[in-house]
Write a structure and sequence with these properties.
Number of strands: 5
Shape: globular
CATH superfamily: Response regulator
Order of helices and strands: EHEHEHEHEH
Helix content: 40-55%
Number of helices: 5
Structural class: alpha/beta
Strand content: 15-25%
Distance between the termini: 12 Å
CATH class: Alpha Beta
Low-confidence stretches: none
Mean pLDDT: 85
Radius of gyration: 14 Å
Length: about 140
């Protein structure tokens, strides 16, 4: 079922990942969540390499929430890699970045991001953003209620 599909968070900052997971729950986005801490780990997870080979434990996600500024490989490199993989063509990749630079937004969308979300400053703004995001993923058929 789509509502049980996993969301993969690719975020190197522990505090930001924690707040994002908390805000997802608060916005009633109850899908299972997995997290990777850098771009290389994101690629390993998505390709089922190494420790991510157990697809029952690490299922292919329905959505990737992708930070752009990560170590080992940037979010741009991960996004470009994803869009080159035949088996990941339908994967929704939503950039969740602190950058509001027009060139970053344009580049992410040109590389195939489905959506570009600017990380808000306050927890209240994050909660509001994710309530709106819930409507987006509900339309995609991914949200669990």
């Amino acid at each position: 079922m789509l509502f049980q599909r996993t969301i993969l968070i690719a975020e190197d900052e522990d505090d930001e990942a924690f707040l994002l997971q908390r805000a997802l729950t608060k916005a009633a986005i109850l899908n299972p969540v997995q997290r990777v801490k850098n771009g290389m780990e994101a690629i390993e997870y998505l390709s089922g390499a190494g420790r991510y080979g157990d697809r029952e434990r690490f299922p292919v996600p329905a959505i990737v929430l992708l930070d752009l500024n990560m170590p080992k490989k940037s979010g741009f490199e991960v996004l470009e890699w994803i869009r080159q993989q035949p088996g990941l063509g339908a994967l929704a990749v939503d950039v969740f970045s602190g950058s509001s630079r027009a060139e970053d937004i344009e580049r992410a969308l040109r590389l195939g991001a489905n959506l570009y979300l600017k990380k808000p400053i306050t927890m209240s703004e994050l909660d509001d953003l994710l309530r709106g995001y819930r409507q987006v993923i509900t339309c995609r058929g991914f949200a669990q209620f």
